[in-house]
C-alpha cells in the first residue's frame, strides 16, 4: 500500500454511516452512540460517510468526533460532482463536509461515484482530480481516491489517466462477481493490475444477501448451520488480495456485534465453499424480475418519480425477500424525485414503455410498503 495508507488502521472492517438506525424519521442517537462505542472497543477505527448521505456527516460528528480524540479514528467522506452546477462549488461542498463533521482534515476523501459520463466529464473538465490532490497538499486531506460504479473499460481509462490515485472504492460481492452488469471480478482485476489499494463497498449488497427467509438460506445453512449468511459474504471479499478495507452500512447494534465477531474470526473460503457461493448466486439470478431494461423512455414522469430506480427497488424486495437496503434506496429515490404514492395513474409512462410493464401497479405496491 502506498503513502502509509494503512497507518492507524487496525481492523479491515469499516463502519458505513449510510444506513443508520432511526426512531421514526429521526436518528436513534442512543443506539448510534452505542454502536460507535462497540466498534471502537473492538479495534475499529474507519468510518465512512458522504456529503450526499442526508444527516450522516452530522451524526458522525455527534457520535464520534465530539466523543473521541481525533487521532483515534479515520473519517472518509466524498465529493459528489453530480449535484454541482459549476467547478467553484467543489470548494463549497468540501467546506460543508468539514463543517458538518467539525474536523480540520479528512483522512480519506474521494470523488463520489465516478461512473456516468457527467461525472467523468466534470472530473476532467472541472479539474476535480487536481482539486482533491491540492486538498492533500494543503493538509486538509490525508489520502485521496474515488468510488466507482461503472464498467471495466472506464475504470481502466481512469486509472491510466490518474495513476497517482491512492485508492479506489469498488462494489464487490459474490453475487456481482460474475454479474455481466456489474462485472465485479473484471473491476477487481483491473485495480490489481494497477496495484491500487481497494476499499470494498456493498459486500452484503446492502444487506440483500443476509435477509431472513432468503432464497439462498437453505443452501448456505445446509452447508454450515453455524455460519450466518453475512459471514459467507464477508469471507468472500476479505480473502481478496489488495483489499485493505471492507465497508458495512450497519443499522443496529446487533448487526455491528455480529460483523465485528465475523471479522475477528475470518478464515479463507475453501474451494468447495466457493462452489457453494457460485450456486447461491445462480439461485438468486434465476429468480424472475420485472423486465425493466432501464431504457429511460419513462424519464418525463410529470410527478418526477424515478421510475426505473423504483422498479429495481421493488425487484430487490421481491427477489431477496427482505426490506434490507430496499427502504433506504426507496427513500433516496423519493428524495431525489418523488415517492411512489405521488403517482396519479396518468399512465404516460406505460404508454411509452417498450416492455409494456405495469408501472402504476408496481408503484402502488411500493407505496403500500413504504409510504
Task: Explain what the structure shows.
- This protein is of the alpha/beta class and 371 residues long.
- The protein has two domains: 13-279, TIM Barrel; 307-370, no CATH class.
- It has 15 helices and ten strands.
- It has helices at 29-41, 56-65, 89-101, 117-125, 128-137, 152-161, 184-193, 217-223, 229-238, 253-264, 271-285, 307-320, 326-336, 348-352, 359-370, and strands at 13-16, 22-23, 26-27, 46-48, 74-79, 106-111, 141-148, 168-171, 198-201, 243-249.
- An eight-stranded parallel beta barrel has the order 1-4-5-6-7-8-9-10, surrounded by five helices. A two-stranded antiparallel ribbon has the order 2-3.
- α12 crosses α15.
- The model has no long low-confidence stretch (mean pLDDT 94).
Summarize this structure as a short list of keywords or feature phrases.
371 residues; two-stranded antiparallel sheet; 8-stranded parallel beta barrel; alpha/beta; 15 helices; TIM Barrel; globular; single chain
- Average of per-residue pLDDT values: 94
Assess the beta-strand content as a share of residues: 5-15%
Q: What is the number of helices?
A: 15
The gyration radius over C-alpha positions equals 20 Å
Look at the helices and sheets and give the structural class. alpha/beta
Give a count of the beta strands, DSSP E runs of length 2 or more.
Answer: 10
Adjacency order of strands in the biggest sheet: 1-4-5-6-7-8-9-10
| CATH-defined architecture of the largest domain | Alpha-Beta Barrel
Look at the structure and name the CATH superfamily of the largest domain.
NADP-dependent oxidoreductase domain
Helicity level: 40-55%
CATH topology of the largest domain: TIM Barrel
| Low-pLDDT residue spans | none
Could you give the order of the helices and strands?
Answer: EEEHEHEHEHHEHEHEHHEHHHHHH
Largest sheet: 8 strands, parallel, barrel
CATH class value of the largest domain: Alpha Beta
| Terminal-residue CA separation | 46 Å
Task: Tell me the number of structural domains.
Answer: 2
Overall spatial form: globular
